[in-house]
Amino acid sequence: MLEEQLTGAPDTVEEALRSPQRAEWQAALQADFESLLKHGTWKLVDRPKSSSGKRVKVLTTKWVLRIKRDENSNVLRYKARLIIHGFKQRFGFEYWDTYSPVVRIVTMLLVLLIELLLGLDARHIDVETAFLNSLLRGVTIYVEQPKGFDGGTGRVCLLLKGIYGLKQAARIWYQTLRAHLVEIGFRRCAFDVGLYVSVIEELRQKFVMKDLGRVKHLLSMEIHYEPGRTLCLSQSAYIDRLLTEFGMTNTSTAKSPQMHNEKMLRLEKDKSKVNDPALSYRQLVGKLQYLISCTRPDIANAVRCLGRHAGAYTKENFTSAKRVLQYLAGTRMYGLVYRRPSAVQDGKLQLYAYSDADHANCPDTSRSISGHVLKLNNWSFGFKSKKQNAVTDGTWKSELVAASTCVENLLWAKELLEEIGMTVEVPKLFIDNRSALKVCQTVGNYEGVKRYAKLGHKIAELVEAKELTLEYVPTSENIADMLTKALGPQRFALLRELLGVEDVAGAKLQQDQDA
To answer: Which residue range or ranges hold the Reverse transcriptase Ty1/copia-type domain (predicted)?
Structure first.
């Protein structure tokens, strides 16, 4: 979707109606109010009275104002939305369950890659005022009439539909959408319950939908897609906002997110030295983690190191976080770039992965770090950099633990692809440790590995059943190496390129020249 400008809009209705854009804001407020009435969101009733010792709560609301802009910051429209103060809801009275599944980002990326491979278009469809399509059941909720539209009657709204701000709004919308998707023949994917497979035309008969055209913006990602040619995913605007928020717009740049061989810092025990409220450390780390999950896996190891200090961060930790921002400042136009080969072979998809571990890397627990990269036809799509759950007493054992986690994700991707109708070759796992490779290749009793026998046997059984193949890769060629340790600038740049992270602007220019 097009990004919403988070600054520049008035904070209150009063401020909006005093501004030079009074007419635009008044029209936006009226449009949202009429939409609420059109959807039958509530009915007006007399204010309820408490009875039998039970206090009846009437929730309050707020108008949230936004200015919607295009990628060049031109104003598209003024938008108002009525939001309920859901934080005032009480469990067991105004709500029960709230969980609502969403599709995984890695699943969305896989779908985009399949579209690129097959030369398909990728459309972006928006259900207008989605939450207002869901019936509210099982609870009774009263809400004050919207400010500016109350008519002075003293009556209140009895909610009949979901509305933005309700704790359960996303859940009941998901239930509504799921029921209709199944009704018109969609099939929910077993390996990601946020993915449905079928066609979309029949959805238009149920919901008011807007075709936003070829997908260009999604979840803060900038998407440049030429069907059958190139797919580029980047977040330059997101990075710019980060740099502005943390006062780094004019910072010097760094060639890598960490110093070469930089070790993880020990956790600070002195409480007087941690959690300075003047440092927005947790907010920064959280926003960097989202960047990793979408388009910038090259900062995964650095941000993992930062994340372990979220509970007790210091100024030194914040300095390390600012280095990541310095690196991003110099690579703000970088992202994931996928090019479709000029000659695409018909038949099965190739699915493989690189696995790596850095033994006893954590200075506080001596636990190792696992990292892996998943690839589809040489396109990277799945990444992981994570501290292992237990201490291992040997390098190859930590590699075995990392391989086990990688295989789980590799097989998940295979099953997901097969469920949406793709044919996949037997997946392959690349490991750079020969001892771990030996244990994974054959089921057997190996001296000194009783504790890890289950992990090795599980992989070995997959190999024997011809559901997985294994291959040794030199450490110098193992892409996952950059997800487990801090590398020097030259090696980091090499592996970053193999990972598929490169200058998106350069990729677009090259595509235009080749056209």
So the answer is: 41-199
